[in-house]
């Protein structure tokens, strides 16, 4: 029998937080219930308490995680970050001729890392540094969205998702208008040149340690994910990410997110662009 009492919702909230770090306040009770109902249908288990019991024992844990992630993203979302990377970050990295390493956290269905990859390839051509090795690691806690991202196949509403004109997207995506009533939609499939740059991996930002070397990355994107954590957990995530960013490297945060305790160790360039100036 399905249980929807306040006690059940509190147990569910605690389990979500313990596993993922996602903080769902009391006003999110309806969201919790909707996600549990959907998960129950997928698992074909009618007893909600049984689901929580199994999850606490380690069963259905990934399904539970996938049920509670939010996956809103677009190509070239917050476009000023991509133009900053193109105009300020990548010219220097190309001149230095060292390898370029970028980390995209909470990469969701892949639009963000593919946008990063297209910007990177465009920059390598413009700044004539094709021989400089480059790679992007893109992680998410949700295995469903990672599977989707690895395919690299998207239907894009060009009215809702404005695409940039400063690079030739058809060099990096197979682009085809879709027929029918929604003629503003196009099919965008990532070409091999993009896919070869990106390694998609499962990772939980709430984990105490990340599988990266200290000062490994030139650029880190952590956008629109910190908002799902408590402030004290945001601080911990930022500290971990910061330890893997090179001095002189750039951290991009979402428009409503805060650098918090790192403010004394970064130069702020505006629009939530931060340059690490010391460890």
Automatic annotation (TrEMBL):
InterPro entries: Bact_Chemotaxis_MeTrfase, CheR_C, CheR_MeTrfase, CheR_N, CheR_N_sf, SAM-dependent_MTases_sf
Any GO BP annotation: methylation
EC annotation from Swiss-Prot or TrEMBL: 2.1.1.80
Keywords recorded for this protein, A-Z: Methyltransferase, S-adenosyl-L-methionine, Transferase
Enzyme class, broadest EC rank: transferase
Catalytic activity field: L-glutamyl-[protein] + S-adenosyl-L-methionine = [protein]-L-glutamate 5-O-methyl ester + S-adenosyl-L-homocysteine
Single annotated GO MF: protein-glutamate O-methyltransferase activity
Domain CheR-type methyltransferase: 1-279
Gene3D superfamilies per the UniProt record, alphabetical: Chemotaxis receptor methyltransferase CheR, N-terminal domain, Vaccinia Virus protein VP39
PANTHER family in alphabetical order: CHEMOTAXIS PROTEIN METHYLTRANSFERASE
Annotated protein name in UniProt: protein-glutamate O-methyltransferase
Lineage: Bacteria, Pseudomonadati, Campylobacterota, Epsilonproteobacteria, Campylobacterales
């Amino acid at each position: 029998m399905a249980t929807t009492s306040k006690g059940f919702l509190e147990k569910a909230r605690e389990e979500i937080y313990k596993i993922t770090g996602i903080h769902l306040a009391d006003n999110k009770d309806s969201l919790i219930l909707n996600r549990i109902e959907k998960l129950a249908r997928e698992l074909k288990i009618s007893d909600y308490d049984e689901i929580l019991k199994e999850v606490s024992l380690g069963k259905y844990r990934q399904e539970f995680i996938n049920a509670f992630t939010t996956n809103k993203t677009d190509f070239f979302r917050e476009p000023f970050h991509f133009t900053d990377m193109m105009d300020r970050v990548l010219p220097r990295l190309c001149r230095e001729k060292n390898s370029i390493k970028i980390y995209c956290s909470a990469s969701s269905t892949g639009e963000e890392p593919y946008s990063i990859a297209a910007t990177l390839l465009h920059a390598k051509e413009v700044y004539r540094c094709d021989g400089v090795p480059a790679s992007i690691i893109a992680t998410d806690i949700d295995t469903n969205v990672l599977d989707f991202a690895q395919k690299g196949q998207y239907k894009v509403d060009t009215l809702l998702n404005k695409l940039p004109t400063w690079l030739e997207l058809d060099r990096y995506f197979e682009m085809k208008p879709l027929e029918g009533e929604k003629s503003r939609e196009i099919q965008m499939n990532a070409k091999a040149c993009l896919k070869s740059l990106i390694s998609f991996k499962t990772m939980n930002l709430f984990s105490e340690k990340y599988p990266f070397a200290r000062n490994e990355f030139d650029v880190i994107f952590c956008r629109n994910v910190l908002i799902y954590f408590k402030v004290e957990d945001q601080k911990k995530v930022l500290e971990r990410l910061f330890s893997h960013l090179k001095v002189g490297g750039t951290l991009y945060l979402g428009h409503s997110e805060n650098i918090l305790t790192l403010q004394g160790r970064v130069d702020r360039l505006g629009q939530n662009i931060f340059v690490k100036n010391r460890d």
